[in-house]
Amino acid sequence: MSLLKLKRKIDWAVFDGEWYKQQYHSVLSFFELSQDGEIEEFYKTKGRDLKHSPNPFFDESWYLQRYSDVRELVASGEYHSGFDHYVRVGNLSHSPHWLFDEEYYRRLYLDVSPEILRENNIRNGYDHYLNQGSRQLNSPSVFFDPSLFISENPDFKIDIEEGPYIALLRSVPEPAVYQKRMSWYFDPDWYVKTYPDVCEDGVLWQGPLHHYLTNDTPLKYNPNQYFSEDFYLSCYVDIAGAVQNGGFRNGYEHFAKYGQYELRQPEPELSLRVYAENTKVKTEVAKYAKSSFFVYYVMNNGIIDQSGYTEEEIESISKDVYQRMSRLRLPLLLRSKIDFSCENPEVSVIIVAYNNFAMTMTTLASLRDNYDGRIQVILVDSGSSDEVKHIERYVNGLDIIRTVGNVGFLAGCNAALEKVKADYVLYLNNDLELMPLALETALARFVKEPEAGAVGAKIIRTNGLLQEAGCIIWQRGAASGYLRDQLPDVPEANYVRSVDFCSGAFLLVRTNILKELGGFDADYAPAYFEDTDLCVRINKMGFDVVYDPGVTVIHYEYGTSGSSGSNQLMLINQQRFIEKNSDYIEQRLPRHDGQLLYARSAYPSLKRVLFIEDYLPFRHLGSGFTRSNDIITVLTNCLGCHVTVYPVFRNTGEGDDVYSGFPDRAEIMWNKGIDDLTDFLKSRPGYYDAIWVARTHNAERVAPVLADVAGVMPGCKVILDTEAVAAGREQQKAALRGEQAQHSLDEMLRQEFRSAGVAQKFVAVNERDAATLRRLGMQDVTVLGHLQSPDRSAPGYDARKNLLFVGAVHDKDSPNLDSLIWFVTQVLPLLDGRLPDDVTFDVCGFCGADIDLAALLPHPRVRVLGRVDALAPVYNAHRVFVAPTRFAGGIPYKIHEAAAHGLPIVASDILREQVGWQDGTDMLACDHMNASSFAEAIVKLYTTSDLWGEIQHNALERIARENQPQAYINAIEKIIMM
């Protein structure tokens, strides 16, 4: 929006005598006041105390109710009134009226700095709105839609120079207007019917919306039938905490500002995420730039208009667009002269082309752009009549085989096999495009998994839906593409699996296997089931056929399927396939929807484990999430379990990390949360052998869910991994703050583990916590610490410099933040003059969005590095690791990690006790309240090379003894094999 300099007075900052006389007529009459001067004087001497508003644009009562800190300042006499506060200091950060939201308006319409506003003589968002935005029909908040207001009140008089918002606020009184809908976010009719008591005190309210936004019990009322305050706050405990702390007036304020765009669920029957995945809904919402899926749902009462194009029509259109785009690219590709000339190719690509010159060129260009390495392209021109027959004019380095007539895909591929020079052969259709890194990723799979014989792709059709995510062979020989017609980003399509077969549209195979098998079986000529048969024969040789979602292609899916002749040929070759592979087919599952989850993988897993955590446990999150990540990795990569990772809180900001942050054979349910868990488990009856619940507090969250699904989860065992016993940490925190604990340690423990009965097996991070669990009556308890390997090649004393702290700071109550502030304010100043001035204290780790470490840690030695994905170079560059934690539970991962990298540690006595190491031998430990002893230990370790070397050696030995990878793997195997 362009900014016009304002020349009018600031309407919200002045006293409006005429409006005041109308608004408070009865009060002024009682005092027999009518003159302008005496009315304004009355406001200043008495009206402010009566919480009168000075003009229609500022609501004094609401302002004091909404901002409790302002209310306290007015009570103390620092400001005459809420209006006085707003005019003097609050206007840039606070909202003046229940129908105007400063933050919302600035974000939506004035995304500029305060300096730019000042340059244009604009005081704040409200100033702009009253002078420009109202007449331009901008929305001042989610609760007032000017266009909707006008349509609901066609007879309401509106000055075109002012707009509906100003007209509404000046209209004193207009009770009928306030009874009508002003926004899709609030339903006044439903509200009055649901809460009839609102009408009993009608004199206090201007209408239902006014009541909803200004009542004293905001958690008691819902704004419409599509939002439940109780449900929302019970599902999203992070929001409940923010509401309790005054960050939001209620859950709906959060939902309207943020939750709806994060696709959080507003009430039990409305899954916004599912609704938003509907193609028609996406299309319709995209038409309204300022709308949302929730608003669209409300406007249409949840009904999706399915009129318009059918799925078949959509796919036909998308294919037409794809062909047109291929033709549009063609002149550019012809001029670019694609070149595949090379010696000693790394991969040989076989393409069979029958006409479709433009698409063939698109495929070749996509292949060349996709991989910089040496590629041999063997192109079989299967009797083309278009420019394919002259393709060597436009592409260099092709090995071309030309046939008389269209010999088909199978015969063409087998003829090309004779020319293959590389160790890997890629069968590639001439009607597809490779997405970034497709070929590189496929080749890397063979290095990562030597048992892989073939690698297939995630194939997406031109309509944006899946053709397949790996393929299934059923017991009677039928074959199907897994997840056909689903969205490509669904979690089920995005983890690596060994499958029955993958389509020959993109199939990378080891050359030695292909030559041993003789390529495709010629009995399937001219087409159908040849790629299925090849993959089965590869499986029979003891090699895996691997579906890798990192290998993604867009496929036109060109062909003649659907004609009577092709259907007959398909049936004949299916029967031939059954006869040739009866031994393999007999071991497959019968075709049934209930078997789909089991059939999607070619081989059964050791165990199927559902791993539940607060959030997706990315390693950079620290705070126990690194340990959870290690457990998932061991279960998946070392023990061969199928692991489904399931967060309590839906992932909202880590989409780029979801699949790179975990083992690629783990299924990551990034689009789910605790509110989806019941339906999720019911959709997978009997599927999981074990549910691993990370963190004790999650036992309480999943307990009612597990009770509800008990009938469909027979034999499924629940493992409760406590990660850390919290009660002791809370007592430490209370003592640190000089607070008296309200409950004894035993009472806190009983409260903490009140839902532990949901589990049959328990995991503790150390022996001390394990003893606590056993004392509480838990029998099957296993200790599982941290996974580390000592780096014997770690740099020595002279190669290192500076102090290091590694730890996540998720919120202002974080023990890491407490320790950092204490260390920087109390310890760092004691190092001045004792360590060189250029020695820095580097702080590394994830930081919550509302935490500004740079502002909280102002000492000149401090350098805030933030999140660092590769920590090894950071550890190897520093001389001393500092861990001044003053309250904690479990075992600090950072201690073991630093020690494993050969970085000696100065830590609090609390952490030393947790790891059970020796002060002066394995680390230096200090009283967590004694800043001078901490400083002394740091100086001693930093400046004494002999001591430094001794501590490094001893700590590495500790890691070697106590954190052995094989022992860690064995412990997890023991836990899971119950």
Automatic annotation (TrEMBL):
Its EC number is 2.4.-.-. Transmembrane segments: none annotated. Keywords: Glycosyltransferase, Transferase. The keyword ATP-binding does not apply. It is an enzyme of class 2 (transferase). Pfam families: Glyco_trans_1_4, Glycos_transf_2. InterPro entries: Glyco_trans_2-like, Nucleotide-diphossugar_trans. Gene3D superfamilies: Glycogen Phosphorylase B, Spore Coat Polysaccharide Biosynthesis Protein SpsA, Chain A. Residues 348-465 form the Glycosyltransferase 2-like domain. GO terms for molecular function: glycosyltransferase activity. This is Glycosyltransferase. It comes from Acetobacter thailandicus. The lineage of its organism: Bacteria, Pseudomonadati, Pseudomonadota, Alphaproteobacteria, Acetobacterales.
